[in-house]
What does this fold into?
Amino acid sequence: MPVVNKDLSYCIVWSPLPPITWILPFVGHTGIADSAGIVSDFRGPYFVGDDGRMAFGAPTRALKIDIKDMEGGAERWDLAIEEANEVYRYTKTNKYECITNHVPRNGITHSTALSLSLSST
It folds into this structure.
């Protein structure tokens, strides 16, 4: 069930990856939303979607991050997302490597994690 009419600002979002999620319910696609609620997600080698849509459909889960104590506030949050998006626009991934090593080294979760890391520095 998609998250409908929900304010996605400052959220980490998740959507299922059919049919993988049907078998392994914890597997999905992540993204991160800026202060305006625009979702960015890593969609493959050299491609970051920052148009507000996710690669595999609307998010079904959203975790709101409390930024009230973050130094720089909304401006810092948005800048961190922009910086991470720029890094991943120039990042090549190998999907086979991600699957065979069971943990993606340069992929979906890493772009979201980099945004969070940059927002806290």
